[in-house]
Amino acid sequence: MGGIVTSYGIILGLIAVGFIMGTTKVIASDEQRTVLDRLAFYAALPALLFTVVARSEPEHMLSPVLIVTSVAAVITALVFVAIARAYGTCNRADLTIGAASSSYMNSNNIGLPVSMYVLGNAAYAAPVVLFQVLIYAPIILALIDRSSSLVVSVRHAVLSPLVLGSAAGLIVAFSHVDVPEAVFHPLEVLGGAAIPLMLMSFGASLTTATPLRDPHARTLTFWAVGLKQVGMPLAALACGLLLGLSQQQLFAAMILAALPTAQNVYNYASNYGRDTRIPRDTGLITTFTALPTMMVIAAFLG
Description:
By secondary structure, the protein is mostly helical. It has a single domain (2-301), classed as Na+/H+ antiporter like fold (Up-down Bundle), CATH 1.20.1530. The chain has helices at 2-23, 30-54, 64-86, 92-101, 111-117, 125-144, 150-158, 161-175, 181-191, 194-205, 215-243, 247-257, 263-271, 277-301. It is globular, with a radius of gyration of 18 Å. The protein starts with a helix and ends with a helix. The model has no long low-confidence stretch (mean pLDDT 85).
């Protein structure tokens, strides 16, 4: 469990730095905080995704664990949409952001260490990163885009920096192109700023808005948290049993499904000018609840 604890220490520390910067007015407004989001979205995160994907093993891109976690994510998202509509939410962007909050896994800065130190193989998390940025993220971005035409929205999503960075990494991984160190190393350095930028922006946002303040958003946030921490691991369990996964594969799928909501969802909502309350609060709460959830899973299957 050392990898999980270390990952959590990094995340909470960076959120605390952002909170302190917001409290002391180093980040004095939402406009200044948005600069961090845009730097992450348009520069640092694409570089990070390129370097991670480029170093992935092609033979690990498609696995039973990936299939199970992907299906579990879709099931969880659809359940949230049904619940949110029952509570009167009909706006496409709000439904999309809420659904993503309940199913988008923090597969990078928590998932990769967890995969390495808890599951014993980083190959479990890398395909999940690919699925989310190459398939899931473009769908999310297309649905929250303010363009009146769905075709235009899809084009914007497919040509987003995240997808382009991941696609370039995928080409490198499959073609085995040797990227010169003079090119790859600067991208690694730039990519290393992605997680700190997103987490510090997230921490700063906590100084200008009270989590769980709005009753409607609070109710849907609790549903998103419950689905992410209970519903999605159970969906992974059911799918894994149906597909006949081994105990180790089932354990890996449930652990990945229990990862907290990624800060990417908050970043997407912020960059597209959408309501950030549910992704912000869900990301915050699941960061604390994911650890005991994973420990329960480990007690039964680990």
